[in-house]
Amino acid sequence: MSMLLQLKQLAKKRPGSTDSYLFRNLSAAVAEPQIIHLLGFSGQGKSTLLRIIARLSGADAGELYLFDQPMAAYSPEEWRSTVCYVAQQPIMLPGSVEDNLRIASHLQQIPFDRDYARQLMERMELHLDWSKAAAQLSGGEKQRLALIRALLLRPRILLLDEVTSALDIHSQHAVEQVLLELQRSEGTAQIWVTHQLEQARRISQRIWFLAEEQLLEDSSPQAFFHSPRTEEARRFLQTSLEKVTN
Ligand SMILES: Nc1ncnc2c1ncn2[C@@H]1O[C@H](COP(=O)(O)OP(=O)(O)OP(=O)(O)O)[C@@H](O)[C@H]1O
């Protein structure tokens, strides 16, 4: 079967360490455009794994395949316009909101799709003056602008690193709806990192649980949340629940 994305035996050492690993022999495959949530305790390497998949950081061992082709078959630019990483604390480019929106078309040398940008902004309830300096936006506005900037690249795979963490629940739902719709209509696969389990329950179609240097669980949300296989996942769910109720 043809695969969108394959992670084969990936390993990454802890920064600064020679023999301690964040993860190793980590393998997974994405065959269809699903919404996957990558969950785990803090510091397990979730962001690091997303950054490796985005080719923003290198693995110490292992291989990535995109559409059944090894990473070496793609230039970094080709890869990064197909597999797009959106950070929790996005970096705004110098200039205005519009300058930030135009960057995708500038990089890809394609006409700027103003209507699509406007539509995404409306649907994410981002009502901004396009001439405003991007540096002056709030955290939540920057998050949505960075997400729209990535969507204008029309990536096949989106890597979303806590991209709604600065949003109120209303804006969060608006963003989730846009991304769900994008998966349904365009077939955009998505790997989300979040600490909001409610969000994972709402929209996830598959859970990857990173612990003990592995994707310890790779399962349906139903199975993960209701009958996790491992003690570590049960502990994670219990601890996360306590955090919400305390
Ligand atoms: N640039 C860096 N320099 C030094 N240490 C780093 C760097 N990036 C990550 N680390 C360390 O690597 C480990 C994994 O970090 P990472 O951000 O990938 O974890 P995470 O699972 O996403 O955590 P969180 O849920 O808290 O965001 C952490 O211990 C972190 O401190």
Automatic annotation (TrEMBL):
Q: Which SMART domains match?
A: AAA
Q: Tell me yes or no: is Ribosomal protein among this UniProt entry's keywords.
A: no
Give the ABC transporter domain ranges.
5-237
Q: Does the keyword Ion transport apply?
A: no
One GO molecular-function annotation for this sequence?
A: ATP hydrolysis activity
Instruction: Specify the superkingdom.
Output: Bacteria
Protein name, UniProt field: ABC transport system ATP-binding protein
InterPro entries given for it?
A: AAA+_ATPase, ABC_transporter-like_ATP-bd, ABC_transporter-like_CS, P-loop_NTPase
**Source organism:** Brevibacillus fulvus
Q: Which keywords fit this entry according to its UniProt record?
A: ATP-binding, Nucleotide-binding, Transport
* A Pfam family annotated for this UniProt entry: ABC_tran
